[in-house]
Every structure is written in structure tokens, then in C-alpha cells.
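Aim 2, interim progress. The first record below pairs a target sequence with its C-alpha cells.
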Amino acid sequence: MSSADQARELRRFPPWLKKRIPPPGALESVRRLVAELRLATVCQSARCPNLCECFAKGTATFMILGDCCTRGCAFCAVPRGPCGPPDPDEPRRVAEAVARLGLSHVVVTSVTRDDLPDGGAEQFRDTILAIRARSRCTVEVLTPDFGGNSGSLDRVLSARPDVFNHNVETVPRLYARVRPGADYTRSLAVLARASETAPEILTKSGFMVGLGESRAEVLQLLRDLRDAGCACVTIGQYLQPTASHLPVARFVTPEEFAEYERSAYCMGFRHVASGPFVRSSYNAAAALTQVSGVACGRAQPRG
């Protein structure tokens, strides 16, 4: 098969990458609320393939600290550009959205802010505390690496999120191409410190496949995550968000995803989500429910 034929084949999604789109009306209440409260979601900014499904269920993953990133990874649709100062009212507005949506579990992530001395850690902490003041909702944070600043990480952990998530994204061999500005060893160190200093907080990470990694590299990455104290892992198919981003090297089959899941459980992970449409925050409450037995029904506001 010629290279041109291979490129055409990769643009044609396999049958397991087809999703049913819910009726447009089911999404609008979340869209309106996000717009009204002037919030960003990673669902929209990163062009997540699960956006319609999650919005239709009345949930979203909130992205704090602006909608532009200081790094600009080659796989990510979040734009790189100048960033303004953190908005001091943003934590309150996120908490307002969580309360109005009646969420029982929420994921809060952010762009990477290498321009801030603390990498945005204080904004994460303020957001966790604001949510806790308004709701009994469990809170998961998906943070950047804070440039390896342990003080920033400790500041986030001091607010005691229920889940601490930091993604390694890909195997170390591909970092220079996929995650320029990031460092595999530094990301593992972030996860290890979270696991060691706050063992009561569930530690989680995730990565993509289909970027050119080998099976052996994936298995080694999983072993590295377990050695770093990770209890939960997510594995999903990379999908090219625009023509200017990295192309898909191949589509990983559901059978391969199932094999990775089995291998991860054999290594001792307590929760594994592995599949073509899996993303870090997709059905995120399942990990907490499985590991801790906390059932995530509708949240009750704090009285």
C-alpha cells in the first residue's frame, strides 16, 4: 500500500469509532450555562469526541486559568497564545455551575501556565474550596506538571481533592514530537509525590495510543505508572483534532484495548478504563466508585 493510500485509509474511521449523536436540544442547557457563566470547558476547547454525549447527560469538564496554553502540544487543539492573569472570580463561577448542574462528581482541569510563578496552583486550590462550599460533590483535578514545582503541587493537594490526575499522555520515546516542553520523568515525579504525600487521595493518569508507540512501550509505561503510585489509568485512541496536528499513526482495535486493560489490572491498578473513546475525564466518577465505593448519584447542595 502506498503512503497516499495509507493516509486515505487513516482518514476513514473504522466501525468501532462511530458514535450516535444525541438530539441537539439535549446539549443546549449545558452550552447556555457555560456561556452565561463565562467558563471554558476542555470538552469544547480540545474538541473532545464525547462532548455531545457528556453535555447531553448534563455534565462537563471545566477548564480554568483561561483558554490559551503556554506550551501548545502537537496533539492538542487548545490554542497556544498569550494568557491573561488568573480571574479571581473564576472559582466561584465554576462552583456555581457545579451547583446548578447538580453534579455529584466534577473534573476540573486547566491549560498549562508556565508564565505563572505557581503554575496556577492557587487557582486550583481556590476552585476546589469554592466547589466544596457550594456542594457535596466529589472533586477530581487534572493538573499540568507545574514545571516540577513541588510547592505548587502540595498547594493543590492541601485542598484535598478526591482524585488527583496528571496525564503522561504518551510513551517517553515520543515526547519530543508529541509533548515539547513536557518531560516524562518530571510527570512521573509529580504522580509519585502526590501518591506519597497524600495517600488518601486517589492518584490517576492517562495516555493516548495510536501515535506510533509499540505494545512493549505501552506495557512499560503502565509499569512506570504503577511504580509511581498510580491507582487508576485511562487509555484512549488519539484522534487528530485538525489538519495541522499530528496525524494518527494507526487505529488501535478494541481487542488491543481490552488486552491493555487486562495487563493493567494484572499489574495492580485498581481502576482501568481502556477503549477507543476513553478520555481522562470521560465517566470519571466510575473510578472513584469502583475504588472507594462512593456512589455518585445526584449531589445535594450544602445548606
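The second target in this work package is listed in the same format:
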Amino acid sequence: MAPAVGVVVLTYNEELNIERCLDSVAWCDDVVVLDSHSVDRTTAIARERGARVLTRRFDDYAGQRNYALKQIEYKHPWVLMLDADEVVPPELSREMVKVVATAGEHITMFRMRRKDFFLGRWLRYSTSYSTLWFGRLVRVGRVWVERSVNEEYHTDGEVVALKGALEHYPFNRGFREWFEKHNRYSSMEAELRYRQGVGRWQWRDFRDPDPVIRRKVLKAVVYSLPARPLVMFGGRYFIHGGMLDGRAGLTFCLLKSVYEYMIDCKVTELHRRQQGMTV
């Protein structure tokens, strides 16, 4: 009997990643690739691996994921949402199959962590692995996604945390692609910050039992600090222990600080242009 879990993978020009991703979910009998009109061999490889391939022009990440959750029909009541540079290890696959088999109707989403790999090693400390959770295994029809980038998963039911973690290879397509992607991400984040600000928070939110809420309020606090990119570098590298990840940790922490500085620069640009000033 096939596991009662479907899989949907979002793709755009992912020929370097899609094969490994799909091979890691070969146990699934309903794999969908939602592609944003790739111009490489992504869709050909997906079809060779037996996936259903659908296309939708990309607008933003929340729009793409909500389309996958609302407009695509799946064989099973549960769907795992993946990116092409992610891999599902066997122990996580077994855990997901087990939990959905016994989940009551009140449970609508399972969160999991993600192990980022860079320069041949797992970045255990640089990436806030212990506190960063992703709501990727969802009951179809009970979950929706908000925020155009760095999305937030919401549900009207109960959320449960899994022990297993996804594997993530964000640099597999090279540094050039990483910079291009984060240039886009920083523009989208800057637009959100310009329109919405850093968000409201209260001190009691730091004690909330939900780790996603605690992380969200911490992010709001950090976004209001001066010299934020430097503060975040210090937090990642010294406080969270990124130095223990060796050269890979140092490089990653520096790159993330550059990304955060790009956001700040673009927010400044938006404010100046709104006031009719040059940049």
C-alpha cells in the first residue's frame, strides 16, 4: 500500500537539483512538479521520473504555494511541499508515513526543521537549525500561505512538530545563482518592509509556546535595531556558534549579512524615491 502522502515540488530551471529531489520521494505514488516555465531540462527530467508536470507563471512564493494547495488535485489528503534543492532522507519519509496514518482530523499541519549543507558539510550552528521550523506537511484544504517571500504557513487546525529534518542544498547551483536569487529575495523583503514596517510585538510573545511566533517576534525586534546586518552576523557567528561550522560557517554568515544589508539599502531607496529624492 502506497503512503497516504502526495508531494509537490516548485521548480524553475532546476535541472541540477530536481533529479536528486525526486529520487528522494520515489516512495510516493503522486508527485507533482509545479514549474514556472523553465527553459532547461527540469520538466523533461521530472517526466522521466514519473512526476506530473504542471506549469504556472510565477508571481510570488505565497501565490505559487497557494495555487499548489488550492488548484491541484491530489490522490491523498496530505501533501508534502518541497523545493527542488531539498531532499527527503529515509528517516523523515518513514516518520511522515507513520504520523499521517494516525493523525486525527484536528491535526492539519506537521512542521519540520531543515539541515542546510554548504561546502560539503551540514551548517548545524550558522543557520539557526534548532529554532527554525517549516510547515511543509499539510492537510489539503486546511492550510494557506502568506508573505510573498520567506513564507508563513497558517492553518485552522492543530500543528505538530516532527523529529526528522529535510536536507537543503541552497548553493548547489553555484554562487552566482545564489546571489541572483537573493537579489530577488531582498527586493521582495524590502517591498514588504516598506509597506508593512517591522511588525508589532509584545514582550509576552517571547514566552509563547509556538517556536514560529517566538522567532517572528525576535525577527521584528532585530529588524528595528541599528546596524542590523552586523548584529545578525554577530548573532549567527558568535552567539549561535557559526564559528563551529568552520570556513563554511564563516562564509555563510558573511553572505547572509550581505543579504540583510541589501534589504536595508533597498528599503532606504524606496523611502527616498517616495519622497522624490535621488538615491
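The longest strand covers residues 107-118. This observation will shape the mutagenesis plan for the next reporting period.
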